[in-house]
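TL;DR need structure tokens for one chain.
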Amino acid sequence: MLRAAGAVAQCSPSALPLHTIELLITDPPNHIRQSGFCGKDHYSPVMKPAFVVGILNAALTTMWLFAGEERRWHEETACRWTELGMPTQGKAGFAQLSPAITGIVFTNTLTEASVAANRVLANGSGVAVGDYDRDGLPDIFFCGLESSNALYKNLGNWKFKDVTVEAGLVFPRKPSRGAVFADINGDGFPDLLISTLDEGVLCFMNDGRGKFADKTVDARTRSRYAAMTLALADVDGDGTLDLYVANSRPTDIRDRGRMSVSVVNGNPLIPGGEKNRLLFKDGQLAEYGQPDQLFKNDGKGRFTEVSWLGGGFVDETGQPLTGPPLDWGLTATFRDVNNDLAPDLYVCNDYWTPDRFWINDGHGNFRAIDQLALRKTSASSMGVDFADIDRDGHLDFFVVDMLSRDPRLRKRQGLAEKPVGSPLGSIANRPQTMRNTMFRNRGDGTFAEIADFARVNGVR
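>> reply
TL;DR here they are.
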């Protein structure tokens, strides 16, 4: 993760080992660590579906920036940082490498007919980057929707080889939405987790000799849910990586074309078979998503799902939840936002379902952040990232939505929901706004939303 003003920081050697699919640096070689901010980013970020070319260019360029250079490190509490050495010639930016150079010929195919039948597939797929064979070179795993997944081994000098068959990663084709390399059994080799459209999470264990074995049954991560994003962190401090899965839904009710709804005494009634899926909200028909899942790791790569109702999650007042949130999950990430060395959790949700911000009590139990800590959120949150943007020692964060910066396009962007006013005197409401949001951490458990002031409220 690049710091403002062209600097980068590293977690101290005492920080927890990190397993992440974002831009990676290995130090020492048997651990994957994330460059971060002064002891804040101790925990794994999230697998995000992304455009393959963009991720590959960013990853390879960042690896090049850190390769073979002597650097002057500035030591600070729990971290060190250095200025990036930039080339003296050329211009800033990325250079796209062609398949003829890299040997990567993967294409994530999706037909128009498939999208027309199921719009959920348009969310796309992601990639995972990690040194699966520990030869010091980051390898790449590509997820496919209608094409088969592929693992490319890094041969060095920007050359890659398809080793999917040799690595034992050939299995019946499933729409795969994302993946992450993470050592979930503590043997020092990154295993592979894959999120799927309608089978939850697949788990492939690394044998340390360059091959993977399907251990999904043993890991107990398969479900009927539409897994979207995988976030890993040691939430309870026992030294093992736990797993949070943001789920959405494998299909969208709108793709059915039409459905019949009865009206009794002027009130619409949801058909019996859809009562747990549909609701009328502010006069409009809305659809629930699926519950997310938190899995605790026993240290051997076997997971136990945490109940939403057993005290593992509580509301803003500390009361047990009455049911699991049925959200359209897109992205989830762990970060320690209150400096207590326990990873907190932010979840971006699509459509009408609100984002969730869970604060860790230090023992792996989560409490919804105070209602007044955030005064608004993005309406259709696509992704989130954390950084100390003003270098005050507190993690801030940025959530992306879909508001265009082009005024011509803005005029054609309709409201996602019917505006609903708040009762007079109400101060605890948290409206959803159709734009990017940026939150500056005040350091007292509350955040100021500053995207408009920072001129980052829209996207190109």
